[in-house]
Amino acid sequence: MNLNNPTIDQERLKDKTKLVLKVNYVSSGIAILFGLACYFFLNITEIIPHTLIGFGVINLINTFAFNAHKNLELTFTTSSIIAVISAFIIILYSGGINSSFIFILPLIVFAGYVTTRKYGQIYLNLIFLFIIAIYSQSIPDFTFTYNVIPQESQNVFSLFSVLFSIYLLGNVFGKNLLRTHHNLYRTKSALVKELNEKETLLQEVHHRVKNNLQTVSSLLSLQSRAIEDQKTKELIKATQNRVISMSMVHEMLYMRSDISKIEYKSYVQELSEFLIKSIKGIENKIKLDIDIPNIKLGIDTAIPLGLLINETITNSLKYGFCDEDQGEIHIALKKDPNKDYVLNIGDNGIGFPETVDFKNTKSLGLKLIHNLTRQLRGSVTRDNSKKGTNYVIRFQEIDKEFSAI
Description:
There is one protein chain. By secondary structure, the chain is an alpha+beta fold. It contains ten helices and seven strands. Helix 1 runs antiparallel to helix 2 and helix 6 (about 155-225) packs antiparallel against helix 7.
């Protein structure tokens, strides 16, 4: 069952937009308040308060700009770049690798993964490099920064930094991600319910189509009883078999959990056995050889291919074998490397002259074989290297709706 639905994608984008914008507004507001607190209450007058306030103002402008361009990726990327640069500067000038503000860096990585895995990976690698650069400032020979936080304000600054990180993680990221997950779960549950209802309805459609086709078959059978002309009876019988071959497809789709494709070997086995018993009787000497791996085909391919197999087997049973002769019908289906299917089908009967062109013949059965092959976007050739009548049919799986022949 495929749950990749435009409705879910729209919900994801909507929730992601809300999350990014709320994170931007909250982080900008807290950063500005944090910067003012550093300047007026913690006696931090260099670099850090200016960086915090600058980040807050620029990020607010970037967030307001989203209302004009509606490009969430641009807004997020700009905010992330500003946040990484600002955090890097603050950490360098608040104790380096020992700075409590360093907890902000994992939040930036987390925000990247919330947006997309690609961004999360980019920011993860970038933060690794930044942490190494920050650590280098603890090495005397590489130091070019200094701690601008007064000794008496360091504990309070650490407290504010940790509270800032925890607030963003819990109240902004955690709460909104939980709400987003809950909304997506409800949307997914509704879609699963809707899909189950549609599958049930589609199964019922296949069941009704099968019943209708069986009714048509029964009407043809009743009609044939009132006809004395043998040729006309045979024509009606052939039409009845064609209807049954289509009915079997719908019956198998109805009986199975996967209503989009049928296991073709069981279908061919059932169809072939039915045709042999229908034309040659229950006590017959016809051997059936089927070589089909685990191949599943959709209804748009299964029906025309089933009709093609029906015509080939019918021709073999009617013209390839005499009433008392033993015979063999072989059917092999495989998928070749270029994704086309190859059907080898035929018999070891008496065959028909090579001069007969099945494309232009007056025989309805041979015409149907040719036309059905064209419908499957394929080609049909006779295999004259074997005894009897044998065909090699190459075709493609059809994705569009079944069209009339």
